[in-house]
Amino acid sequence: MTSATKTTSLRRNRPGTKLEDAYQFEHIPLEQFDSAFALQEYLQSLIRKDKENLDQLVELPPGQDEETWQYEHLRQLCLELNYLVVQLETECNRETCPEMKADEWMYLCAAHQTSMNCCAIDYIVHTLDGATTLLNSHKYFPSRISIPDTSLKHYQPIARRLYRIFAHAWFHHREIFESFEGAIDNYKHMIADRSQRKQDFSSKAKPW
Amino acid sequence: MAQTYGQQQSQTPEHTLPGVIHFLQSEWRRFERDRNEWEIERAEMKARIALLEGERRGIENMKIDLMRRVKMLEFVLRQESKYLAGKLPTQSQSFTKESTSISTEEGPESNDIDSLKSSITSGRPILHHKNLSSTRDPKYRTKSREILKTNSAIFVGVNSNPNSYNEISLKKPGNVSIKPSRPAPSTPTTPSIASINSSSQLPLENPKDDIDVVPFEHEDGSYFPRYGEESMKKDVNFANNSNYENHSIENISVGNGIDEMMLNLNSENNNDHERGINYSSTNNKSKQIGEWKLNQVKNKSKLAYSKSASDLKEEEEQLTKDVQKKFNLSEDKVTKLMKNAKKRKSQEILSITSDPLLDELSLSVEDESPQKSEADRIYENGTDRKVWRQRFTLRSHLDAVRSLSWHRSELLLASGSEDGTVKLWDLKGSSSNKLTVVPDIEPLMTYRGHSAAVNSVVLGTEQHRCYSASMDSTVRVWNLPSSKRETYGPVDPSLNLTTYIGHTDAIWDLRLFPIHFQSTQLLASASADGTVKIWDTEAEGSPLKSTLYYYGNNSREIINGRPPAPIPTSVDFVHSDLKKIAVSFQNSIIKLFDVETGQDVLTFESNETYDNSPATQINYITIHPTMSLLFSAHEDKYIRFFDVNSGKCSFSMLAHLDSVTSLDVDPSGMILISGGHDNSIRLWDIVSTRQCIQEFVSHRRKSDEGVLSVKYHPSLPWISSGGADSIIKIHC
């Protein structure tokens, strides 16, 4: 039996909803989202609708702040990276990757008072936890509707560090990376997102 | 079906075997508890009788002593009158003065004390002994009270008889355990503290002063003894109060002030208290001596034996009156206390022993009695319920928070979110923060392992584990990290214990068996694949214990013509009958299954408003911890109450402006909390009015979802709520 979730207009996963019926919400334009989290909903709706269409994914919706749009992208990125970590944990551990490396680059973990040479999986988890905390910080991001100018400076380190997680996966866990990329297409999502924000920090992006 | 209120769910008309057994068990427990209380009370009364007897003996001895001295003085007087026969009256007067002063000086020092030592030896040691026992008693009492508390907690935890509910709910474990930490209303404590201070200091000086000064300064002689008398009165008063302390076990809601006294008694100075009583009895003697001397001087040696005796009688009467007065006064206080306490009864639930803030408050009250504690202010508001306020916000989830679960005793919260993670929050440190300081609280731990949204989490306190169920159709089992773990510590793969694979579709609800046994701990999961699976989390090998189907045991093969089985939405173990489990389905039916056989035992009349669409489904069910009541949260805004034994709906109400998503019953069993997609959290009085007690809006909607989870802490006055806005809020 399938539930009638599809036919109801409410954007809601009721308890008992089957996986195949979950999130089967109609894609609607941003203006029709009537909530404080319209941008997030819109972005998630876009991803569900067509995650291959990167141009559309990163395209700034009309009338929106670029900062808030980027903020939602970063949040979504952290969210989806959780699932990459889940897969990485199966084969990336202290023994296989004692250092956080991407090709020849080695990174130090910035989640500690003084930067530490954490092993790769620690680095990844710490970075993701740190980024999530920062993005959820009431101090730096009190509102998801407008971002204070002083907090914009955090975008770049967050993005740079998250980007290294992909780099590590690409160089050391290619299979996982590829299956993950196929599943969620996060990498392209991120690249596209970054390229869109190229003007901000392309010069500082590290090659890998 | 939706009956109006006031009907007690009584089992009596049913006379089922488990019902009868339950009733008998609960009666037995109640009786045992009462017996305990009586025994303690008896011991207390005995101690008091002994104390009073000791006092009486002391007074008697004193009387004998004084009589002896009166006779002695009479003898002196006679001698004197003989001598005076041939002398001048002026000389005689001066001599009288001298002789009396000499004799009195001897009185307290040699005669009095000697006689106390020799002839009154029987009285003194007894006094000592009794006093000691009375001061030791409080400690003993608090100990026995602790034992009683735990006992009653166990009793209530197991108890589920609705007949005994009313009594038990008033004496519930929460209430009992609250007591020791409760700050007392300041009015009764202030004088008592003052009295302790005065009595603990002054008696120390009194004995010497009495003995040295009294004989010479007659005017002061009556002054000093007054302290003695006062301190004695107060000590008696004190003893009376601490006696009452015992009664407060009976009337659990009584005795904030008394507990405060208790604290004072224990914390201030046991020794002084003890001494206070001892001194007071000696002071009492010297006082009488002093007074008697005063009389003696006034009468200028013309004192007849009879007169002094009557004075003594008067004195005694006065004393008993005073004491009586004090007794009455303290009784008044006690009755006042009782009244106040009764008013507060309902509030008692909300503040519990180990809330550090309350502890602090009660401590501060001890030190500065005039300063009113926050709790007192709440009482004085005239509202008889605690008003819940948002305390702080936990942000770290990136998408809707679907489920929350508290640790049974600690301030540890697990949250499951649509972002696929389970986070563990340690709020111990945060509880001490002032309301104004709201730092960002980072989760203690983030569990990543699910490949889709997490729909349900549950903490297994005894097992030190966390279970999470996800859209990815797995249940994952996590070890809780050690308390020493740093937020950014190394990744520990050993925390990821195991994964239960067996369901074939999203799992929506997860419940742990309410009682933990060493060998077995059941976990029930409800999945969109149409089944409820029961896992034995302690089992070696395959954890899957059984699978429940909508049509019972034999429905594995789909029979033609039968509609496909409805999907379960929520499960809960029946607390009053632990062999049973209740399951709600998307077709708005609630069924009771036998955990062992897998057979459906009872179908509830719960689909009153079902219209064949999930828009009228049941979202969540929860079962009352002690009563045989089941609460269901409906997508069409209803909350319904069912009798677990009959399956009949006893109450139905439109509870929210939008779908009701989650429910929980407070630890006392008096209040139901509900959260809905209308963003509001509402508290309902279960027992009497069934009205909404409080409502607060604390989440924002994302998509068409609002509040997704509300949970009472099982032992502390905290509420957590999780919403689609990916935020967790803590109220207290």
Brief summary of the model shown:
The complex is a heterodimer of chains A (208) and B (732). Chain A is mainly alpha-helical and 208 residues long.
| Number of contiguous helices of chain B | 13
Output the radius of gyration of chain A.
18 Å
How many strand elements of chain B?
A: 28
Given this structure, which CATH class of the domain at 80-204 in chain A is correct?
Answer: Mainly Alpha
The CATH homologous superfamily of the domain at 80-204 in chain A is termed: MOB kinase activator
How does the major sheet of chain A shape up? 2 strands, antiparallel
* Terminal Cα span of chain A: 49 Å
Number of domains of chain B: 2
State the total count of DSSP E strands of chain A.
2
Approximate helicity band of chain A: 40-55%
Strand content of chain B: 15-25%
Distance between the termini of chain B: 36 Å
Judging from the principal axes of the Cα atoms, what is the shape of chain B?
Answer: elongated
How would you characterize the overall build of this protein?
The complex is a heterodimer of chains A (208) and B (732). Chain A has 208 residues and is mainly alpha-helical. Chain A has helices spanning 38-49, 54-58, 66-88, 120-136, 155-172, 174-184, 186-196, 198-201; strands spanning 101-102, 105-106. Chain A has a domain at 80-204: Butyryl-CoA Dehydrogenase, subunit A, domain 3, CATH 1.20.140. With 732 residues, chain B is of the alpha+beta class. Chain B has 2 domains: 23-380, no CATH class; 390-554 and 563-731, YVTN repeat-like/Quinoprotein amine dehydrogenase (Methylamine Dehydrogenase, Chain H, 7 Propeller). Chain B has a 4-stranded antiparallel sheet, with no helix packed on it. Chain B has a 4-stranded antiparallel sheet with strand order 2-3-4-5, with no helix packed on it. Chain B is elongated. The model of chain B is unreliable at 1-11, 90-136, 155-287, 300-308 and 341-383 (pLDDT under 50). The interface between A and B is large, with 51 and 63 residues.
